[in-house]
Fold Large ribosomal subunit protein bL21.
Amino acid sequence: MSYAVIKTGGKQYRVQQGDVLRVELLNAEEGASVKFDQVLLVGSGETITVGAPVVAGATVSATVRKHGRADKVRIIKFRRRKHHKKQQGHRQHFTEVEITGINA
């Protein structure tokens, strides 16, 4: 089974065909096909191809399953004995994609 390491949204992911993962928000409709062309590494059995920095001609195709927002993260800044407390919340947007193929 072949695998690849792709880069999207400033993060790197190790993917195989059939994997479902959440990446940073992509500008694509649900059900649309997307291609990741920043493939850093492709492995198949004992053979590993490492790019410098990317593998030439390699792409990973995926379909967009859904868009959403992650659970709320609470940020609290507190100074004891100083009458200071600051609260903030954050929900990160994401796109859930399913890997459909690795072309190396």
User: Anything to note?
Assistant: Residues 49 and 102 are 13 Å apart (CA to CA). Strands lie at 2-8, 11-16, 20-24, 33-36, 39-44, 47-50, 59-69, 73-79, 84-90, 93-103. The longest strand covers residues 59-69. The radius of gyration is 18 Å.
